[in-house]
Write a structure and sequence with these properties.
By secondary structure, the protein is α+β, with helices and mostly antiparallel strands. It contains six helices and 20 strands. A four-stranded antiparallel β-sheet has the order 2-1-8-7. A four-stranded antiparallel β-sheet has the order 3-4-5-6, with no helix packed on it. It has a four-stranded antiparallel β-sheet with strand order 16-13-20-19, with no helix packed on it. The longest helix has 27 residues.
């Protein structure tokens, strides 16, 4: 009896191994020899143990589309939809041209609920409504849909399909292009590159007032509005100047730099597309020395113990700090730091302090260096502001790594 039991178990084990070998053998027969261009489709490579021959896998992390196996193109993390209120066409300007229609598009990044605040400024044909862009039927065809919603958080039960696009499987030479969809009194476009819908439109135009700047557009690729008062345009200017006045030379709207060079007020000029200069490349930032610091210490404390900080405005990860030079109003720092991939319209900020051990540090001055001054490299003395009357200069250099 014992021998029969062992024989039965042995036969069962062999049967299980045979089934496993058959399963592996069947999966190994899936042909992937013609599954080319998966990376271009932003998808994982064809899986030879998968179920569909010559088909790519899921969308790569950060891309949007239906699940694999599939050969449909996934959209980039810079993609979006744009709703054009009251228009039967989609006037897409491209990234380097202005958007000339008086009504701006409602820009919808993937996964974001974007709303009109009720006054119809952003969506005059659907005042108070919201919209979102998402992938529908992810396990099936994986088509793209804009939904119009009645709740401010775009709860699924409150949303109805507004426009749809089938995924692209054959890419044209000019890239991924989707048809303009007309629905009701509006039209909608799906774009693989959201900058095409925005063009060089001034950020403040999306906020509806020349005195506001869209801070979110400066720091994220989401094209979500976060309207704030423009930081370098005082209230006295807003009442009397149109949007272009801050670009064209209202003295009140500029910070003086080096005595004559002016810093443009953020959000009051069209955003400049990145050039082939230093934008997007790693750069070295050097702080050599400073002259003319005030004596910020008392007689008992000696003289100024100076140090400076630098970095890109709104990007704390780029911050760097020099050494502290004790008892010196014209210190030498000789500090070098590397900043990775600054972008067009990034502003370098430098702030200098008097180190007070055991107390809060005293400000010695600050300077701002906009991208149009460092885009081709910069070396020179920058005049500091907020110096309590001192004529303080900071010698810096920004160059390609």
């Amino acid at each position: 009896m014992r021998d029969r039991t062992l024989l039965g178990r042995h036969r069962g084990h062999l049967h299980g191994l045979a089934l496993l070998e058959l399963a592996v053998g069947a999966n190994a027969l899936v042909d992937c020899s013609n599954a080319t261009g998966c990376a271009e489709r932003r998808r994982e490579e064809c899986n030879p143990l998968g179920s569909v021959p010559n088909a790519c896998g899921d969308c790569l992390l950060g891309s949007f589309g239906g699940r694999g196996p599939s050969n449909a193109y996934c959209l980039a993390n810079t993609s979006c939809a744009a709703v054009y209120p009251g228009l039967d066409t989609c006037p897409i300007p491209g990234p380097t041209n202005p958007y000339n229609n008086p009504q701006l598009p409602l820009v919808l990044p993937f996964g974001k609920c974007v709303c009109d605040d009720g006054n119809g400024f952003r969506w005059p044909t659907a005042a108070g409504k919201c919209a979102r862009l998402r992938v529908e039927a992810e396990e099936g065809s994986g088509y793209f849909a804009v939904e119009r919603c009645s709740t401010p958080t775009c709860e699924p039960a409150s949303c109805k399909v507004f426009a749809t696009w089938a995924p692209i499987t054959l890419r044209k030479a000019v890239g991924l292009q989707f048809n303009c969809q007309q629905t009701g009194s509006d039209s909608a476009a799906l774009l693989d590159r959201c900058a095409d819908a925005v063009g060089t439109t001034p950020d403040s135009a999306f906020c509806g007032h020349p005195g506001l700047v869209n801070a979110a557009l400066e720091t994220t690729p989401d094209h979500i509005l976060k309207c704030e008062v423009a930081p370098r345009c005082p209230a006295s200017v807003l009442a009397t100047n149109l949007e272009e006045s801050c670009c064209l030379g209202a003295d009140q709207s500029f910070v003086l730099l080096n005595g004559s060079q002016r810093l443009r007020a953020a959000g009051f000029c069209a955003r400049e597309p990145p050039s082939d200069e230093l934008f997007g490349k790693s750069v070295t930032v050097e702080i050599f020395s400073a002259t003319g610091f005030r004596d910020a210490d008392s007689q008992l404390q000696g003289n100024t113990d100076a140090f400076c900080e630098g970095g890109l405005v709104g990007k704390p990860a780029t911050k760097f700090t020099t050494k502290t030079v004790n008892d010196e109003q014209s210190p030498t720092f000789d500090m070098l730091s590397i900043v990775s991939a600054p972008q067009a319209e990034d502003v370098f900020e430098f702030r200098c302090w008097d180190r007070d051990y055991g107390e809060s540090d005293d400000a010695l001055g600050y300077a701002l260096l906009p991208s149009d001054l460092w885009a081709k490299g910069f070396e020179g003395e920058v005049r500091l502001n907020g110096t309590s009357g001192a004529e303080a200069l900071l010698k810096v250099r920004i160059a390609l790594l």
